[in-house]
Amino acid sequence: MTGLLERTLNRDRWVVAGILGLVTVASALWTLRGGGIGMSAWQLTAETGFRGALIGRVPDMALPGWTLGNCLVILAMWWLMMVAMMVPSAAPTVLLYGALHLARGLGGMLEFLAGYLAIWAAFSALATAAQAWLVALGAMSGMYMNLAWPWLGAAVLFAAGSYQWTPLKAACLRSCRGPVEALIANRRSGRLAAFRTGALHGRACLGCCWGLMALLFVGGVMNLRWIIGVAALVALEKPSVWGAVLSRPLGAALMLGGAFWRCGRQGGWDRQSGGMDKAVDQIADLQTALEAAGRGHGVLLVRCRVCRV
């Protein structure tokens, strides 16, 4: 009987591991394709750069209002991106839950996973609402999906860094890094027990990582540089033995980055981009005058080259 249980558990583990792998890969590919927004993540990353679109003086495009369909697309984009970033670090806990609850088998592990992902779906809904609100205020690019106000980007960096020093962050990180104790303490029985336990684990992971996820607003929600950077920070903090040691130095680095983000934008970045804006405006005026005379083609080419510099 014991051998049969072990074989069943091993089979279920392989099945769940395969499902987790497929979910992660499919979500990552969907994110790379742009999450249904019409531009791939590669294109958005190339156009926005590290500092983001509007801060880097890339002009935004006026987009239609936020319809229900648009909101659902952005919601799906956020959620699948969270799935791609968070499922790999949660996979050991999903499998551990199956080992601690043999009687629930494969269904118990999948139910646990569903509860975990439900928490990140709720976070994605809040992120979508925040994005729509910021775009309506003019504080965020509707096209490139990054914050347009440098002081607000600096504030997000500082807030995320400050949170790394809080007792709540430390408690959530301990729960994520020590899932055995958390699973035993949060043991549930009855209907949807696995779902509720998964949701509790997801809540702890959200408490641990929400500040890092908020960084995506700074450089661009679909900017691969920032997505990979945040995913790397999550991977270092949660499963790594160095997670507890790195948490506070990371917070200090983020707060320092917030100060640099603000000061750098007020200093050299403004002066450099200001000269470029003036040059582009002068060329635009010259193009208008020459187009009126029927000779605008050559200047249009020059203007395009200047804008690409």
Task: Give a brief outline of the structure.
By secondary structure, this protein is mostly helical. The chain has helices at 2-32, 41-48, 68-100, 105-137, 150-163, 167-177, 179-185, 193-214, 216-219, 224-237, 243-292, 297-308.
Describe what this molecule looks like in 3D.
- The structure is a single chain.
- The protein is mainly alpha-helical and 309 residues long.
- The chain folds into two domains: 2-264, no CATH class; 269-308, no CATH class.
- It has twelve helices and no strands.
- Helix 1 runs antiparallel to helix 3, helix 5 (150-163) packs across helix 8 and helix 5 (150-163) runs antiparallel to helix 11.
- The protein is globular, with a radius of gyration of 23 Å.
- The termini are far apart.
- List segments where confidence is low: pLDDT < 50 over at least 5 consecutive residues: 265-280, 295-309
Rounded mean pLDDT score: 76
Radius of gyration: 23 Å
- Which word captures the global form? globular
Tell me the layout of helices and strands.
Blueprint lengths: L1 H31 L8 H8 L19 H33 L4 H33 L12 H14 L3 H11 L1 H7 L7 H22 L1 H4 L4 H14 L5 H50 L4 H12 L1
Helix pairs in contact: 1-3, 1-4, 3-4, 4-8, 5-8, 5-11, 6-8, 11-12
